[in-house]
Amino acid sequence: GTSLPSIMALQETEGEQASFGCEHYKRRVLLLSPCCKKFVSCRLCHDEEETCKEAFDRSNVERVQCAVCHHEQQAQRKCEACHVVFGNYFCEICHLYDDTDKGQYHCDACGLCRVGGRENFRHCDRCGVCYGVAVFETHKCTDKALDSNCPVCMEYLKTSRLSLEVPRCGHILHRECFKQLCKTSVRCPICHQSYFDMSEHNALLDAELAVTPMPADYQNVYMRVLCNDCLETTVAPFHILGLKCQGCGSYNTSSASGLLNGPEGLEPAVLPVGVPAEASDGGHGGDASGDSDDDSDWETEDEEDMDTSADEEAAS
């Protein structure tokens, strides 16, 4: 048979090392799937094959097979037959093996392995998330923040291996999904709060409304609006280009009433025949609710200047 020194020599050979593992992990072990009882390289390979209807449960892995000598055994760090190390990183809880150094660490509170270095993260018990130390003190807590799907691609966030973004509203999504979303919208798809400081955009709209007066029939027409940024309900002057929150000055608002007569907003507006009092197209380029679905003309800050990313990845 192959001697231990020969096996160790194989480990140091780059070409031989690349032959072990899969596209997701470099390792010298196969895991016995608890559901379909097949040996697979990793949980991702198992789930991508779609030959088994159940998702791979890494916590219930009990048996593994050495990829070098093919000896089947209990899940452990190295082979009991040829003594080859299955992976430089090994977690006894997640049964995660990986030869590539990614700063892996197991978070007991999260219940799985993370990457990026334990010293660079702190766990928030309320959110159930390990946040980067740079954003931990300023992040907005959201109950079980990762126990949900990305609102863009719908992948389950807690076990996702992709980098995550933590906007100021607290609704986490994949960083790449965040970047793609910001090409067409600057609002959270869940709560509609603005991702960025929109003061410059609001000032531009103020100037635009000032030089675009409404017809005389609408001069004293108002509408009750709900602001998606400050969550206050105020009565705003009706304008086809936008409904401005009278509290924070944001135009990221939704209409909360029909057209009203006067700033007190106590009575429906009386308009000429043919103009419905329930008209509510009050958002800047928006839909009937006053929300703007086309935010492509909104100026945004450079995402690289935002220090709100979690750098949160699930390693297992």
Secondary structure layout:
Layout: H1 4-12, H2 14-18, E1 29-32, E2 39-40, H3 43-49, E3 63-66, E4 72-74, E5 89-91, E6 96-98, E7 105-107, E8 112-114, E9 121-124, E10 129-132, H4 133-136, E11 164-165, E12 173-174, H5 175-181, H6 199-210, E13 221-227, E14 233-237, E15 253-261, E16 267-268
Antiparallel strand pairs: 1-2, 1-3, 3-4, 5-6, 7-8, 9-10, 11-12, 13-14, 13-15, 15-16
Throw out a few tags for this protein:
alpha+beta, four-stranded antiparallel sheet, 19% strand, disordered N terminus
Distance between the termini: 34 Å
How helical, in percent, are the residues? 10-25%
The helix tally amounts to 6
Which structural class fits the helix and strand makeup?
A: alpha+beta
The strands making up the biggest β-sheet line up spatially as: 2-1-3-4
Total number of strands: 16
Radius of gyration, CA atoms, in whole angstroms: 28 Å
Major beta sheet, specifics? 4 strands, antiparallel
Task: Give a structural overview.
The structure is a single chain. With 316 residues, the protein is of the alpha+beta class. It is built from six helices and 16 strands. It has helices at residues 4-12, 14-18, 43-49, 133-136, 175-181, 199-210, and strands spanning 29-32, 39-40, 63-66, 72-74, 89-91, 96-98, 105-107, 112-114, 121-124, 129-132, 164-165, 173-174, 221-227, 233-237, 253-261, 267-268. The radius of gyration is 28 Å and the shape is elongated. The two termini are 34 Å apart. The relative contact order is 0.11.
